[in-house]
Amino acid sequence: MRISIRHETRYDYAEPAAGVVMRLRLRPANSNGQSIERWSVTVNDVPIKRWITNGYGDAEALWRAPGRIEAVTIVAEGDVSTIDCAGVTKPFDGEARPLLFLRPTPLTEVDEGLATLGEQARSADGPLASLHALKDLVHAQVAWKSGVTTFETTAAEALALKAGVCQDQAHIFIAAARSLGIPARYVVGYLRDAERPDDEHDPHAWAEAWLDGLGWVGFDCALGRCPVDGHVRISCGLDAADAAPIRGVMLPGAETTLSHDVQIASLPLDEATQTQSQQ
Amino acid sequence: MTFSEMLGDAGEIRDCYAVVQQWVDETGIEGLHRRLGEAEAIFRRIGITFAVYGEGGDPERLIPFDLLPRIFTAAEWARLEAGIRQRAAALNAFLLDVYHRGEIIRAGIVPADIVYKNKAYKPEMAGFTPPGRVYSHIVGIDIVRTGLNDFMVLEDNCRTPSGVSYMLENREIMTRMFPELFVRERVAPVDNYPSQLLRSLKEVAPAACSGEPTVVVLTPGSFNSAYYEHSYLADLMGVELVEPADLFVDEGLVFMKTTSGPKRVDVIYRRIDDDFIDPLAFRPDSLLGVPGIFHAYRAGGVTLCSAPGAGIADDKAIYVYVPEMIRFYLGETAILQNVPTWQCGRPDDYAHVMDNLADLVVKEVHGSGGYGMLIGPQSTKDEIETYAARIRANPAEFIAQPTLDLSTSPTLGPAGLVQRHVDFRPYCLVGKEIRLVPGGLTRVALAEGSLVVNSSQGGGVKDTWVLR
Amino acid sequence: MLSRTAENLFWMARYMERAEATARLLTMGQRMAILPGATMRDEWRSVVQVTECEEVFGKDAMIREADIVEHLMLNPDNPASIRSCLARARQNGKSVRTALTQEMWESLNEGWRKLETYGVADARRDFAELVDWVKNRAMMFRGATESGHLRNEGHDFLRAGGSLERAQMTLRLLDVKYYVLLPETEVVGGHRDHYQWTSVLHALSGSRAYHHVYGGSYSPGQITDFLMLNRQFPRSVLYCFDQIAYRLQRLAHWHGQRSPANLRSEEMVEALSKTDSGDIFARGLHETIQSKIVQCNMLGLEIAEAYHFG
Q: What is the CATH number of domain A2-82+245-275?
């Protein structure tokens, strides 16, 4: 599939803010499942050129405001072509060891409920079967519902609520997988899915679990299936906080309002040249 | 029987202490006290003070100084030196490994959990190779002695071991006040430490640096308990002492704010903990840090000394594996032994520890500075029981060691010389090569019978002589 | 040089100067307050006004010597107190320890907590001794700076800061005498007026120097001339302005670049050097002083701007 993405994030400050610095992870990396045809990130219309690879293999850049500013607009856009790899992402050279992703975090601390969920999913057919069972359990038990959780809601809390957004579903999956001794991580990206056009105005999130011999296998509990070719990965981490595509600081002061919009569309497969002028 | 640094088996004065004994005899106890008063006045005036966390009282207390030096013979030092260098090399090799392929974990020598689940392990460092492949540029190794030929490593300090300013100041005071001692005895000098440190720091300049590297010392500020040391080292190296607010990151490089505008910084000897150094990479609520500095580090625009995440190598849970690290990475046998250590997270060890609490020293795995320790033989039944409850609640958080009979060194008491327990911390520098000045900091437990030498717990310091 | 270092040096010198100025002010206040016929309240209130911390005392409260000693000498929460100034100067020094000589640091560090040990009663008893002690601290600091500190840009920041503070303090002292203490019932030039003028001179250690210049007689015009315009008396406003302009020129030289502060400081010198005490009284001493104080404040801001203070 060829996917066109435009992701705009805007910060408005009630009064001009000083010392604004932002860390951006807004550039998909080339991997076995996705390749970048065209990509650009701008902040207040200035292109970001300098990218490095972080400890998880994701691209990372830094932007520093030239002085006091009233607003920051970050636009990431481009075209990515994807192929169906049955949800498997091969690890990058030099990225953190899979065993790291057994580490608990405050958002993914395992409580009794999560441990029980893990045990329910445990399968005699091995870890891959357990993970599929876990994905199905989360999909069935935790309803997709916006407004009931926040970005600070833990996996345990969301499981108790039996509701949440894709972040919560992924956290629950990750915590339960780790309780089974399987490394799991949080992935942020974009989703092009004809059945769920409503989701397409937010970045998407799902989970990946490590299986020796296979690599990182994606599990999208919001959809109840593994990613095929509609998912584009931009960053990953131990949990949502760790994988955040944008992290910023400023000197104490102004109140901040955050807004964002994501637009995703599929592109015709055979008209690559035409898409160049189609923005 | 406790080993006395000054006395041989038969109670005779060891040769290396003859000069000291003679000096004490000539000066007399009263004379020594008078000179001690003078030395303290100098320390106070210079401003060498040490703030103690959580103890209230005078925030700028003077760390007690003992006039009588602690002495190593040339032969003793040769062995210590080899052991220290070996350990510093192995610890850095371990860090390079665990932030890359983790071969020592794959080989089943070090368990994955105590590395990857450890808060001191920073995933942000994964896959990154620091300039010169050095993570810990100053390795402080705490060594105790229990017999004439028995030296043991109590713990490693791979982040930013403090106290080296005392090593330098103690020697400075001694040579200033008692020049005659240094005429009589050939003591190896330590005063080239700052230039060696600067040299080591310059050797790890980042790729982006062309020409002479600009080195700075980064301090949290003048309220930090070790601020004196930060300013002292900056001074002796002739480099700027900067605070986080003096620095900013732009285009993958680090700059300091000067009266004539921004100036590039290449190497940062930072005395701020990992968690607080960059709110964009580590603790987001840190007000101390420099936003983006870690990004600049990974981008090759600046070198941080020590590397974030170097603390995994000095974690108490890792400590027990250091002899095996030495074998694994260097193919050598450890020259300095570890203290036998029981990990309460292991069922067998746990049982042994719980049965023998009254004889053991128990420490928190992530504690430091002598806080939160149980010294069995010096504790009441109630204290032991309270501590046992803590261990039961979370065994993996504790390790235990036998109560070591630390060696004693002659120390000036009110009425004459007394024997007090001491330990020793040398400071090993790692740049393109490993460097070690002949000396270090000897800490002394000033209370009779006490085994706690930490300056935060009533310990004092001594000058340390290595004879040539 | 780090901007923070420059800023700390600049303010360290200011705080030491301010501590000394406050000590001198207390001497002056005490001298005036024991003058026969003094109303107590007015003499001490003038001292409070000059330090710009009237809110600590309350608008109409009767101000006694004990209150003054408590708030201007000992109160750690009043930023104008001697204790605060000494503590801040030391804090500035501690933050830039490497930019100081050993002696400079010692002059800041030694005995800096002395005032902590004093209660109001003890401090009143040892009043003269304490005031002298504070003056000695400041003199020792300046002496250590003078004799040992590298003549680098840091030195110029120190001297510029000290001179700026000193100019402002002389201006305020004059203002107190002329404006605040302007007697309501007595004729200007009367016995008490005369005594107050001499107290100002005395507080600035300028009595003897004044006699060298003007002989034996006191007149408000001559005293004003001396304290505002005399280019040889190191506490006069013009002398201090000369110093500031000189230090800022050196800084411009170090940096190869002039800043708005250079221009302003030179204009301040120029304007004052073309003035005589007659002009000052014609325009109004109080008005003149107020405009100079504002210029000093603006200059402080421009220096901060030019050298990137935090």
A: 2.60.40.2250
Would residue B95 count as lying in a domain?
A: yes
Cβ within 8 Å of B, A 80-109: 93-97, 99-100, 102-104
B200 and B113 in a single domain? The answer is yes
Chain A contact present for B280, CB below 8 A? yes
Q: What CATH number corresponds to the domain at position B380?
A: 3.30.1490.270
Identify the pLDDT of residue A279: 36
Q: What is the pLDDT of residues C16-51, one digit of tens each?
A: 999 999 998 888 888 877 776 666 556 788 788 778
CA distance C41 to C64: 7
Q: What is the CATH number of domain A88-243?
A: 3.10.620.30
Q: Which residues face B268 on adjacent strands?
A: B216, B304
- B-C CB pairs within 8 A amount to 61
Task: Round to whole Å and give the CA distance between A128 and C160.
Answer: 74
B-interface mutation test, from C94, C103, C105, most B Cβ less than 10 A away:
C94
Does B201 lie in the same domain as B344? no
Q: How far is C232 from chain B (nearest CA, A)?
A: 31
Are B22 and B108 within one domain?
Answer: yes
**B295-320 pLDDT tens trace:** 999 999 999 999 999 999 999 889 99
- Both B50 and B124 in one domain: the answer is yes
Of the candidates A21, A57, A97, which has its C-beta nearest B292's C-beta? Answer: A21
Q: How many CA atoms lie within 13 A of A86 on its CB side?
A: 4
The whole domain housing B344 covers 340-402
For chain B, positions 26-55, list CB contacts with chain C under 8 A: 45-47
The DSSP-derived string for C59-84 is SSPPP-HHHHIIIIII-TTSTTSHHH
- Closest residue in B to A252 (Cα) is B287
Q: Specify the pTM.
A: 0.87
Q: Is A113 on the interface with B (CB under 8 A)?
A: no
Q: What is the tens place of the pLDDT at every residue in A105-157?
A: 999 999 999 999 999 999 999 999 999 999 999 999 999 888 899 999 999 99
- Distance from the first to the final alpha carbon of chain B: 29
Shortest alpha-carbon distance between residue A274 and chain B (Å):
35
Question: In this predicted complex, what is the ipTM?
Answer: 0.92
The Cα of C1 is separated from the nearest Cα of chain B by a number of Å equal to: 5
**Does B160 lie in the same domain as B59?**
yes
Nearest to A249 among B250, B252, B291 (CB): B291
Q: What is the CA radius of gyration of chain C?
A: 19
Looking at the fold, whether B351 and B312 belong to one and the same domain comes out as no
For chain C, first and last CA: distance in Å?
14
Indicate the pLDDT class of residue B59, thresholds 50, 70 and 90: low
Cα→Cα distances C111→B45, B390, C22, C273, Å: 10, 46, 18, 41
Establish if B119 touches chain A: CB-CB under 8 angstroms.
no
Q: Report domain extents, chain A.
A: 2-82+245-275, 88-243
Query: Among the ranges A65-74, B362-371, B447-456, which has the highest mean pLDDT value?
Result: A65-74
What's the total number of domains in chain B?
2
